Amino acid sequence: MAAAWWSGTRNVAELARTADITGDTVYDDLRSRGIEPKDRTAATERPRPRYEPLQAEAVHELSEPAAQALLPAPAPAPAQLAEETVPLSRAA
Description:
The protein contains six helices and no strands.
């Protein structure tokens, strides 16, 4: 939640809907990270948290499911990439 907030998403209802959780959970999570969601001006003045860069191993672990969703399957199954993609393909 904090990463989404710091990236500019300041709508608690939207965050809750996207994460499929309650608004109260969003409020609690943001407050636990030092963000007061009702004070939108203060949130933009605070420094953004620093995140540790991804390591090659983590990127590889993330790429495997994406490759399985996107790359063509062995014949005779059709490729997953198509004009109309499924949500998993879009996310990958």
